[in-house]
Amino acid sequence: MAEAAGAAVAPAKLGLYSYWRSSCSHRVRIALNLKGLEYEYKAVNLLKGEHSDPEFMKVNPMKFVPALVDGDAVIGDSYAIALYLEDKYPEHPLLPQDLKMKALNLQIASIVCSGIQPLHNLTVLRFIEKKVGTGESIPWTQQQIDRGFAAAENLVKGCAGKYATGDEVRLADVFLAPQIYAAVTRFQINMLNYPTLARLHEEYMKHPAFQAALPDRQPDAPSST
Questions:
Q1: Nearest partner of 177 among 1, 25, 15, 2, judged by Cα
Q2: What angle do CA 217, 34, 205 make, to 5 degrees?
Q3: CA distances (Å), 146 to each of 69, 79, 127, 134, 150, in order?
Q4: Which CATH code, of 1.20.1050.10, 1.10.1060.10, 3.40.50.880, 1.10.1740.10, is assigned to 99-210?
Q5: What's the alpha-carbon Rg for the chain, to the nearest Å?
Q6: Could you say which of 30, 149, 164, 221 has the lowest number of CB atoms within 10 Å?
Q7: Predicted confidence (pLDDT) per residue in 54-92, tens digit
Q8: Percentage above 70 pLDDT, the chain
Q9: How large is the average pLDDT for residues 129-150?
Q10: How are beta strands 67-70 and 14-18 bridged, if at all?
């Protein structure tokens, strides 16, 4: 689980540059938690532009979170981070041995990280608000999420068990959970259209590794008081 930077604890082996509300960071936090890996949480405030600071650009020249530091290895993409963790820390595997199910997990993860989330990240939404008009980013986002969720629902409805591709938490769940959470809490997506995904969301919200990764439980989340 995460330790806030500056806390009086022994240095963590791993360091995660993260923003509390970033769904890309969210999915990496889930993966780290599932694998039982301790890490130091290094907050990067996107709203204040800290991702454009020269020091952070040395970590990730793309100026995106998350970025994972593991010794001399620095990985600045959530999909690459997930695969790196799977290879280096194989305990609690996120990918099944069955090649067909492995491919399905990779496909679902790719739908989220290349077909949904990048189309409504903060940079895109700000551009739409500026160039198209105030309030126009929400219908755009809803369209992208609905398109991706329709595909994901069709892929998992025939093979889902307790989780997306069976009764074990896998990579597909790591990527679906933050996207569904954002859809429900931020973008007013009607989950009645996606009954399998809606049921999975309920399971994710019960799982300790998913609970600990929730945005409002991160050290840099705004105080509710």
A1: 25
A2: 50
A3: 34, 21, 21, 21, 6
A4: 1.20.1050.10
A5: 17
A6: 221
A7: 999 999 999 999 999 999 999 999 999 999 999 999 999
A8: 94
A9: 92
A10: antiparallel
